[in-house]
Each structure stands twice: as structure tokens, then as C-alpha cells.
Design goal:
300 residues, alpha+beta, 4-stranded antiparallel β-sheet, 9 helices, elongated, disordered N terminus, disordered C terminus
Length: 300
């Protein structure tokens, strides 16, 4: 591929900013689909962490695979049950279900008994998690994300310039909305694991933005009089190999969790997988164009 020469002092292979409006339109169209999906589906699905439910402590006399416990719960109709191994590995489990009424507890005991024939089990405790607790958790999560965005804006504005901070925050908001739309369209319930993965994605995307912004700042100092359009394009090209290699290596690790982690880690790993792709995209086509649009020395 031949180098594109847009200025005597600047050479770069790919004119990323040339397509910034097209990709902005793609993102807006995706969000529009998300809004339509939200209206049609009536909102997001929430796991027990946010919707409330019942928590059972189940103890077996002999070890049993957690997969068998999960299959037994699914067979009982509790597809959204959250199962954790605690205490003695393979013997003690915490099982959280969205509700527990009537003879539901007996049905769960019967199903678990059939899954572990000859292995005695007992329910060692039961407690309720009210929906109000779930609402408070969701509210605190939203507040935490909003505060983190303001802190990041302040940090980048101090380290670079205010317009760099706005570009980074625009990128992070884009990533957050993109992941939420993905969760909405796929029907994956929002849980504490999902929340943790979203925060990890924001950190990953921010790191990618800072790498590109650092190169832009260096080039702005060295290349006085060169249009910012060319400087930003050059900076993205210079950091592209690092961005691709880092994203690819991280995707391989997450793919391993996605394939081998089982149902318990599926939500966390699929959100991380999608978020890494979206975060890489937004650092190029959202953060840099927003920063460039706020102040331009010379229009292209």
C-alpha cells in the first residue's frame, strides 16, 4: 500500500479521520436500534443482584460437580439461578433464585437429590434479598460510573488539555452505551459480574486513549504549523501496531475464558470481549475526532 502524503512533513498510510463521519453515523444507528429495542422489550433484564430474590445454602455429604447442580436447577425451571461454591469445595453451595414460594423449595431439593443419587443433601440456611436492596445497588452503580467519568475528565484535562478530556469521556460514554445496547439486544441479565466487566472495559478504553493522546501531544510540540488533522492521523498510525497487538492479545485471553469458563463466567467474558473491540474502535473514531473538533488550527 502506498503512503498517503497530505503535507510535506507528514506521511501516513491510513487516513482514519476521512471516515470519522461514517463511523459516527454507524454508532448513532446502533444506539437508535438500542432505543427501539428498549421500548419493545420494556427495559433491561436484571440478575438477582439487582432484582432481589432468595438465597439458599445447600450442603452435600459428598463432593459434586457444580455443573450438575446448575443442570439440576435449570431442569427445575430456575434458568437464572446463580450458583457459587463456598466452604468445602464441591460440597457447599450458595444458590440464589429470583423467587421462592409455595413448594418451590421442595422442588429444588427433589431436583438436586436426583442429580446426586446416594449423596445426601440439606438446606443449611435461607435468606431473602429484597428488591429495594437491588435498587440501591443499581443506584450506587450508576453514581459510581458517573463520578468515575468526572474524575477521568479532570485527570486527563490536567495531564493534557481540556479538549483531550472531553474526547476521552465521549469515548467512554460511547463504550458504556454500546455495551448496554448489546446486553439489551442479547437479553443478557445485568449482574454484579457484568458491572465489574463494564468498569474494566472503561479502564481498558481509557488506557488506549491515553496512548494515542500522548503521541498526539508529542507530535503537536514537534510539528509546529502542521494541520492538526494530519497530526492526529499520523499519531493514530504510529500507535496502530501497538493498539492491534494489545487488543488481539487481550481478546485471546478473554476468548479462553469465554470458551472454557462455563456458564458462570459467560456474561462477564462476553461483555469483556465485546467491550475490548468497542473500546479499540472508539479510541480511534470517537475520542480523537471529538478532541479534534473542539479546536482545529486548520481545516482539512
Amino acid at each position: 500500500m502506498q503512503d498517503i502524503v497530505t503535507n510535506e512533513a507528514v506521511k501516513y498510510r491510513i487516513d482514519f479521520l476521512k471516515y470519522r463521519y461514517f463511523w459516527t453515523f454507524v454508532s448513532l444507528a446502533f444506539f437508535a436500534v438500542g432505543i427501539a429495542g428498549y421500548v419493545m422489550k420494556g427495559g433491561f433484564r436484571y440478575a438477582i443482584d439487582f432484582s432481589g430474590g432468595a438465597e439458599l445454602r445447600v450442603v452435600f455429604d459428598q463432593s459434586i460437580e457444580i455443573g450438575k447442580v446448575r443442570d439440576a436447577m435449570t431442569a427445575s425451571g430456575w434458568k437464572d439461578a446463580v450458583i457459587q461454591s463456598v466452604g468445602n469445595v464441591g460440597k457447599d453451595f450458595l444458590i440464589r433464585v429470583s423467587s421462592l414460594s409455595g413448594d418451590a423449595e421442595e422442588k429444588i431439593k427433589d431436583s438436586l437429590g436426583k442429580a446426586a443419587v446416594g449423596n445426601k443433601m440439606r438446606i443449611d440456611g435461607k435468606q431473602w434479598v429484597g428488591s429495594e436492596v437491588g435498587k440501591d445497588t443499581a443506584k450506587n452503580a450508576v453514581i459510581a460510573i458517573i463520578l468515575s467519568l468526572f474524575v477521568l475528565l479532570f485527570y486527563i484535562a490536567m495531564r493534557f488539555e481540556f479538549r483531550f478530556g472531553l474526547g476521552a469521556v465521549a469515548s467512554l460514554v460511547h463504550d458504556l452505551l454500546a455495551v448496554l445496547v448489546f446486553l439489551l439486544l442479547t437479553g443478557e441479565p445485568i449482574s454484579l459480574n457484568i458491572l465489574a466487566s463494564i468498569l474494566a472495559i472503561l479502564g481498558y478504553s481509557l488506557h488506549d486513549c491515553i496512548v494515542i493522546f500522548s503521541r498526539i501531544r508529542e507530535n503537536l510540540k514537534k510539528m509546529k504549523g502542521v494541520p492538526e488533522y494530519d497530526i492526529v492521523n499520523l499519531s493514530i498510525n504510529q500507535t496502530l501496531r501497538r493498539t492491534i497487538l494489545t487488543s488481539f492479545a487481550t481478546l485471546l485471553s478473554v476468548a479462553g475464558i469465554l470458551v472454557l469458563g462455563g456458564e458462570a463466567l459467560y456474561g462477564l467474558s462476553i461483555v469483556l470481549f465485546v467491550g475490548i473491540i468497542v473500546g479499540t474502535y472508539s479510541s480511534i473514531y470517537i475520542a480523537s475526532p471529538v478532541m479534534l473538533a473542539i479546536k482545529t488550527k486548520k481545516t482539512n
